[in-house]
Structures are given as structure tokens and as C-alpha cells.
Amino acid sequence: MARSRGYSVTECFVAAAVVVVAVGILVPAVSKVRAAAVRARCVNNLKQIGGGLQTYHQTRGSFPPGGAANPDLTATTPPAREAGGWTWAYALLPYIGHDQLYRDADPQAVRRGKVDLYLCAARRSAADPSGLAKLDYGANGAADAANLTGVIAPTGVMPLRLCDLSGGTSGVVVLAGKRLNLAALGTSRDDDDAFSTAGWGPDFEVYRTAAVPPAPDVTEPGNLEPRGGFGASHPGGIFCAAFADGSVRPLRYTIDPAVWQRACLRSGAPDPPSPNNN
User: Fold this and answer.
1) Does residue 277 sit within a domain?
2) How many angstroms separate the CA atoms of 205 and 200, rounded?
3) CA dihedral in degrees (199, 205, 207, 210; nearest 10)?
4) 198, 208 in Cβ contact below 8 A?
5) Residue 98 and residue 96: Cα distance in Å, rounded?
6) pLDDT tens-digit series, residues 47-58
7) I want to staple 159 with a disulfide (CB 3.0 to 4.6 A). Which of 27, 62, 262, 276 is the partner?
8) Do the domain assignments include residue 222?
9) What is the DSSP-derived secondary structure letter of residue 276?
10) CA distance 101 to 51
């Protein structure tokens, strides 16, 4: 019987090289597909949250109150909570399919109640070691921190209506991703607290402004909190924003700061931001 011929050293090297090349091609491709899927999920989150804001407006005649700096953490009913400074993200719950959480009489249960729509999969899962339910999207508070004249206003200020958007709805940002410090995820931070009672103050917990340009998340040890700015964890220099007309658009961090600031004003940007003009 003839003996089978084994592989030569050269053939083994060639086979190994082919495998290495194949892996080198496939791994980046798989990573790109995964990143695209995560970004699509983020866009869907923003569309559903934006749709909830539209439904809230249709039902109650305005956008929800943003929240107060020192909310009443003991309130047990929705009216008392909204009057007591709980956030826009809490007020929106029944309009995004979370009516039971909205009506839960236990304030701590609400503060711990996870809402997947409020989390960006590029950044984290619903499980947070702090035990609090977080929010990865910030409402448009204003073009600058000194004049809170965005779409969502603090509790106690007259809530905004669509008719107050003097430049129309297509060029006005309603909300977008929050820029955060990834090294601090899982802790209760001033700019990353419970979405329902995070408050509305100088910590920029449930809102952001265009006072600083949007930028990617950072990973820094210590107490660094990139307060105030929009951003995300998505690769490719992209973050996503929801507009007052219900649309969601991916935008680049290279967007002209002046264009971004105008988009965060109630008058809006005359040329609505898009990936093609920023």
C-alpha cells in the first residue's frame, strides 16, 4: 500500500499565510458590520424616543418639562413627580411603552427601572453596577449653557410647543447622544445619574448644550466628567441626533460649530445638518 504524502514545510507556511490573510480580511469586515448594526440600533432608539416626544406633544400640548435641580425623591404619583422636578425622560415613559414603570408607587423602583431605549449599545448594556437606570441621550437644552433656550426647558419654565420653533422643525435638534467618560461607567456620576431623577442643573445630567462642540466619548481615570457636550461611542467619527420633525440623522464631529449651535436654537438651522453638509 502506497504511503500517503504529508504536507511539505512550504505548503504549511502557504496554508498558514492564507489563514492569516483571511482572518485579516474577515475580522475588520465583521467589526464594521457589528458597528453598523449598533449604530442602526441607536438610530432606532432615537426614533422611538423622538416619536414618544411627538406623541407626548400631541396628547398634552407641549414638550415635557426637563426636570429640576433638586427633584422630590419621595413622590409616589406621576403628577407629584412631574410637579416635583422629575425629568423629561420620566414623563416620557408612558409614551414609549413603559406605563407600568411610570406609575410604580415606589420611587426607588422607578430609579432602578431599566429602559433599553435609553441606552446606547455601543457604550453599555442595561445592567449597571450602580443599580440605577441610566440615560445615554441628552435633551437639547440650548445653544449655550448661560441661556437655556433649547427645545426642552427646566421644570418651572413654560414648556415649549412645536409652534414656538420659529424656523420650522427640520433644522432643530431635540436630543442626541451624550458625551461621557467611559472609565466612569457603572458609577453614579454628576453627569450620568438615574434618568428619572437626575435633575436639571449645572451637571448636565439629562440635557446637553452646543456650547462645546460634539465629540467622542473619553476614557480617563479620575473625576473627569465631559459635562455639557453631545457625543457617542460609535466609531467612524459619527454621532446621531433626533430632530423636531421626527427624523434622525447621523452627523460628523467635524460639523461646523456655528451650524451645530444654530441647530440647537429654537429658530433652527436654515440648512438642516446632515452627513453631507458637515
Assistant:
1) no
2) 7
3) 140
4) no
5) 6
6) 999 999 999 999
7) 62
8) yes
9) T
10) 19
pLDDT score of 74 more than 90: yes
Q: How many domains, the chain? A: 1
SS3 242: strand
Q: Spell out the alpha helix ranges (H) of 130-220.
A: none
Give the tens place of pLDDT for each residue, 189-244. Answer: 766 788 999 888 776 788 998 988 999 988 887 766 666 789 998 888 999 999 99
CA angle 199-202-206, nearest 5°? 40
Contact 200, 148 (CB under 8 A): no
Q: Give the span between the Cα atoms of 27 and 42, in whole angstroms.
A: 23
Backbone angles phi, psi at 171, to 5 degrees: -110, 15
- CB neighbours (10 Å) of residue 236? 13
User: Cell digits for 125?
Assistant: 448594556
Question: Residue 6 and residue 57: Cα distance in Å, rounded?
Answer: 74
Domain that holds residue 127: 9-263
Spatial separation of the C-alpha atoms in residues 24 and 87, rounded to whole Å? 47
In angstroms, the Cα distances linking 172 to 176, 187, 200 are: 11, 32, 21
Q: How far apart are CA 47 and CA 91, in angstroms?
A: 17
Amino acid, single-letter form, for residue 5: R
CA–CA distance, 109 with 101 (Å, rounded to integer): 8
Torsion angle, alpha carbons of 104, 130, 96, 32, to 10: -160
User: Residue 193 and residue 134: Cα distance in Å, rounded?
Assistant: 6
Tell me whether residue 149 is in a domain.
Answer: yes
